[in-house]
Structures are given as C-alpha cells and as structure tokens.
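Appendix B. Extra example for self-study. Work through it before the problem class; the solution is given directly after the inputs so you can check yourself.
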Amino acid sequence: MLRLKNNFSIEHDIAGCGLCGIINIRKIRTNGEDIKKAIALEHDRGNGLGGGFAVYGCYPEYADIYAFHVMYDDLAAKHDVEEYFKNNFIIEKQESIPVFKTSKINDHPILHRYFMKPKSDREDRLLHDLGDDDFVVSSVMLINSEYDGAYVFSSGKNMGAFKGVGYPEDIADFYMLDNVEGYMWTAHNRFPTNTPGWWGGAHPFTLLDWSIVHNGEISSYGINKRYLEMFKYNLALKTDTEVIAYILDLLIRKHGLPVELAMNVLAAPFYQTIEKMEPKQKELYTALRQIYGSALLNGPFAIIFGYPDGMVALNDRIKLRPLVAGTKGDFTYIASEESSIREICPYPDVVWSPKAGEPIIIKTINTENISQKQRLIIS
Amino acid sequence: MTKSSFTNIQSEYLAVIDHAKCVRCKRCIQNCGWGTYSFGGDKIIADHSKCVACGRCYTYCPEGAISILKNPTVMRENGNWQDYHIKNIWRQSETGGIAISGMGTPLKYKKYFDHILLDACQVTNPPIDPLREPMELKTFLGKKPSKLELDFNEDGQPVLKNPMPPQIELSTPFIFAPMSYGSISLNAQKAMALAARALGIVMNIGEGGLHDEMVPFGKNIIVQVASGRFGVNRDYLNSGVAVEIKIGQGAKPGIGGHLPGEKIGADISRTRMIPAGTDAISPAPHHDIYSIEDLRQLIYAIKEAINYEKPVSVKVAAVHNIAAIVSGIVRAGADIVYIDGFTGGTGAAPIIIRDNVGIPIEIALAQVDQRLREEGIRNEASLIAAGSIRTSADAIKAIALGADAVAIGTAALVVMGCHICGKCHTGNCSWGITTQRPELTRRLDPEEYGEKLYNLINAWSHEMKDILGAMGVNSIESLRGSRERLRGIELTDSELKVLGIKHAGM
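Solution. Structure tokens for the complete assembly:
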C-alpha cells in the first residue's frame, strides 16, 4: 500500500542521509545527469527508502505562475483535490508528470502537475485578504492535512521537486531527469531509521520556492514545531525537514530577514562568540537569539537550502554531519562527501569543508553581482 | 493528673538523650529555639512536647548523644480518620481558631514531576559532551518582540531598528523565590543575595521592603509590590532589576498575610515603613486591583515609575483557571509571569488552605504555556515556575513543559539547614532562617551559606548541562517547551493530555 503521509504513530521522522547540490551562478541550465551521478556515488548513505531532487529554472514557460506537483493514492483523491483547485485557481495547464516505468520503482502514486495561479475572486477573500503566496501556503497545508490520499510536494514558481521511495539514481531514471534542465539542482538519498519509506517523506521538502534537503536529526524538533504552530503553520508531515522549510519561510518571507541572518537563527552563534562582537553586532545577535531561540535548530544536521536567488549550505553549530563544498568556474558544488564532487568535477578550483554553523551562501549573479563563500568573495 | 491540652497527650517526637554519651556541654539547650532542653542539675532534660524535629540539636551535639524519634505511641489506626485530622480537631477545639502552619503541604499528593521521564540520544543523533563542547544555559527574562525589526546601516549591514525591551539576564535558569525580610531573617536574605551575585542570577526580596544592607545587591534583586505595599516608594521600585507585583502565593491562593506586631522590631519597622509593634497585614486582594484592567493600571503605573527600563513581573498562584488568568496578565502588560504551584512553601498559611487549594505547578505550567501559544502571545512574557522544585530534574522538566526559568525557595532554605519542620510561623527557627530573634539569626552566616547556595545552583546547572548533552542539544532554549522530549509514566490519558505529553513507549 502506498503511503503519502506520515500515518505512523511517530511524531518525528529520523533519518540519516546523503546530499548534493549544484548551482551555476550565471543561471546556465544543465540537465539532471550530473546531479544523478553525484548522488549515486553516495548510494550507501541511503537505504532505498527515499530519494529525490529539486530543480530550479525547469519551467521557464510558466515562470510567473505556481507549479504544483501532487501525489495521489487514488482517483477519488485526485477528484477531490481538483475540485478545490478549480474553485480557487486558474489552471493554465495540467498534465501527468512524465515518468519512465522502471523495475526499480515498481509501486508509485498517481503523479500530476498543475500550472496555475490563485483566482482573484476566490472564496476565502470573504474572510481575509491573503496574498497569493500566503494563499498557496494555506492551500498546500489544507490539502496535505485534510485531504486523504493527496499530497502536494512542490508548489513554487519555475522550480519543481521530484521524489519518491527508492534510491535517488532510480528516482532520477523514473522521472527522466536527463530531460529536465535547471540552473540549480539539489539531491537527497535517504536512510530513515524509524519510519518505513513513504513517498511524502522523501526529500527535498519544498514550500513555495523554498526547497530543503537535509541530513540529520533535529533534536529540538519539539519546540521548533510548537514555535511554528504559534504562527499557524500546520506540521502535517511531522518531519524534521518540514520544520526547517517552514522556519525559513517564516524568517525570510514573513519577517523579512536577510538569508544570512536567517541562517544565524538556525545555527545561532554561541554566546561566547557573541560576547566578542562589536557592540552593534552584539546587540543584533543577542536580540536574534532572544527572539528566535525557539527556532534554533539543535542536533546534528547538514542542509542545502534552495531559493530562486541561490543556494545555501549549512551545518549545525558543532558540525555533527559531513558537508563539503567545491567550486569550478561558475559552478559551485555541495555534497556530503568530497568524492561526489570529484565524480562530476574531477579538478575543482577550490574544495573546502565549511565550518560549523557558518553558512555558505551562493547567490546567482542576475540578482546580485557578487556571491559569498564564507568570508571569501567569488564572482 | 489533668492534662492542660489534648494536644499534649502525645508528643509527636521524642528527644532522646543518651546520658552515657552526653558530656553536659549544654550546647543543645543553646541551639534549640523551641526550649525543648533544660538542665536538671546533673543531666539534660528534654520536654518532648516542644520538639519539632528541626534537627538543629543533633547536628550540633558534639557527642552524637541525641536522637529524635517519632513517638512510637500509636493513635488508634484509621485509614480515614488520620492523626492529622484528629490532632487538628483537638487543637482547634482548644483555640477556636484557624490552624496555621509553615511550609508547603506535607500531604502526599501526586507529584507529576515524578511521573515524567526525560529523553536521550542513541545512534541516530549523537549526545554532546558538556565537558568538551559549549553548553548554554543563559536565559533572558522579559518580553520579546514576535519578530525582529531591522534597519540597514550605510555599509548595508543589518542593525536593530528598535532596542529590545528590558530583560533580566540569568547565567542559569534559576532564581531565588521571594521571601520577605520578616518572614525570614536578614542573614538568610544576604546569603541568597551573595549567591545570586556570584552566580549571575537574581533573588526576589519578597514583600517586606528592602533593608539598607540589601541595597548594594540591587543588580541581583527583584523587588516586590504586594497588597500590603510594604516599603514601596520610587527608590525602592528602582533599586532592583525588575519589579514584581505579588497577587498570590501557591501555598495560600486567595489568602493574605499577617506578620504579628510582636515581630515588628525597629529594623523591620523601618524596612517595611510601618510603626514598630503594629501588625503587618497584607490584605487578600490588592485593594486597587479588583479586576484585570486594574492590574493593567498598576503594571503601567510601575512602568512609569521605573521609566520602562525594567521588566514588570506578576506573581500568581496556580488555580483552576490559571491559563485564562495568565493570558489576561500577559495582555495586561506583564513582562514576566511567575506561577507558584500549590506545593510551594510559605512562612505561614492556614492549613486548610495550604492542603486543599490550588493545582500542581506541572499542570498549571503546561496549560499556561499551551494557552499562550494558542493565542500567539507566548513571546510577550517569560514564565517562571515555582512550587517545590526539588532537583535539577524537576527544573529541567518544568523548562521542557514551557517555563523560562524556575524559582527555588524551600530548597534554598534547606541549604541553610531547614529540615522542613513546618514551624516557620512561630518565629523560633533554630537555624536562624524564619526568625528575628538575634541569638538565633546571628548563627546563620551569610557567607558560609551563600557559598553553599552557590554550590547547589552550580551543581544543578552542571546536571542540567549533562541532561541537555544527553539529549543532544547544546542550548537550553532548544529544550524550553520541547515536550516531545518528555514522556509520562503511570499517568492516565487525561493527565497526559493536560500535560501535553505522550506516554512512555509512544
């Protein structure tokens, strides 16, 4: 039986993992072959119970509207959700997500995608005046928590997630990612330890344009979840990764924090470091910890966070999970293991291990002329 | 022979002296604040009826010649009519008054902390070794904005738009609970102040005003405004790091206080700003607070007086409707809410109130934290939990249930020698804690017991770090409110639900 949702009696999904990311800062698009090769090398970091990819720049023809990827257990669920879509969205195009039936992925849900935008006269306007982004978020949460047998796994613009139960290289073949092109790719290989594989539980986890792949266990999950619930986030999946995506959504989209500061919430500097800062900076970072203490991610993690303007890689405060970065020309590579990077880029210009809690932020140059690699500037 | 009183029929304890060991040094006579011992010409004589088992005499007997025994004489056993009931009836039939006692309830109510178990890491996430990695307990008490407001300076660097609201910074999430000068001795207050200063935490001065000798400890003191308004003036309000409005106390919710005139000597009279020899009455209500909007006025009157430079706390007892009450207090403008559970200590309370009114802190805290989150105002105020925190485990469970910090009252007195005899109200404390008799108070050396208090909080903080490390988190804020790390044992579904935790194994 397929499971799209976390119906296990477990609140907090634990998984070890492998991850990879590739970004071209000039937004040159490449197909999914490299990322597949890189994550395939990390085969042993997963156990075949979850693999997935996020790609940015894959739907240029629909770049201004939302691309929903939805999984359905059965046609009844599809019918119910489509009823909701028809009432609230203008659907420009809908189709099955093209898949290649391989023997490795022998049991999969109905996979469908919709390119659409919220109606301006939708019913919820009677009650409140949500912006389009907020309405999409609430629609995703509504479907994922209230509609049985349906799960929205991608809802951004000009980006998409492709994921499922299986090894990532098989998932790549299943979704035929060699036919998909994007300027930024992230990939994930999953090793869940306390839940059997379920399609919805695979990474990346996405919301609007945010995507997260994550290796680790968030030991502060309990309070992170309760903190997000204060801001009306509905944690339907009950996974660590969902928490990270929602925290970033809250910090960056709703509270308007710069990405770098948001990362300093997830992996906050220790007070002993803050003590040594200049007064203004000290004041800022102390306030950051006072206000967002409940959003601190504690426990071992390495994440790659994708957003339209770039990619961020981040380790926990004491670096309990592996994370390596490398650059070659306009490309930056992030992976759990250096061998993954060398598999697709044998001679990178630089390879380094990011420090605990220090984010690597790579921004595309369309939006900004420089990108930051820790304290070094690369253009 | 006729007995003068029913209560004399049976002494609760027997002070037994081994005359073979006794060297007649008479130290016991000197040490006992209750007058149990006297010298009978050739040996020490004990009047058992006066013994309260406070432990002072045998602690200081150089020969180990004293044993305090529970009187083996039985009252007729009855599961329903227990000694406690019968003796109170006798006492009350003699006096016609309300039976009074000190300390929290001695009755064996279910202690929820003892039915909560903590989590730890195995394999999937690594525990952290607090001896080798930083482990953060730093805690800030006060209102936090719900979001960060930023400005950007000329270099494009983000800076704070508005300064943060005032906070109390604690190096570890403990404070010393409010105990007034009058209910305890000045030396006991000084011991706590010395420890608080050394630890980087705060003590609460209680409702009895601020003695001149406590003024230098201002940076480690929360001053209190209670219904008696003792010692309150503008300087007083500005002399600490925060001001607390005391509405109630866990041991006696809805009940005021009464320090009898005979205890109001010159010093207490000056500190409380009342005439010597007059009763110090704290009315049950604040007579300017008959409703929540009145509380708001007092909160803001105080904030005006302190120029909005310090947080204002409100202390309430845990009662049935505590969640809604605290929500109201937060909306009324309090920056900190101190919740005192019904097992909390007291200097004097009617036994019938102490043993029957209020609810446990664990339940109150769980409900309050949840309610404030549901209303989206948890950030508006910090929560302090109190009401017999006996170990660092109690403290950490309270924090995981949702407290920002815990207050230590009875445990601090135990450090100073208290054996929880429950006779604080008599003013005869042999340990020099809850007494103003100079020959008793001078035996409490503030520096000696200040160091012991420092040791205790230090030890508990180390234990907390160990527990955090075992849980794989390196900051207390990652456990605060994280009920996912708690499991209940031997609790009913309703109890689990009200505590917001799962049963062990789930």
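Self-check: Chain B is about 30% helix and 15% strand. If your reasoning did not lead you there, revisit section 3.
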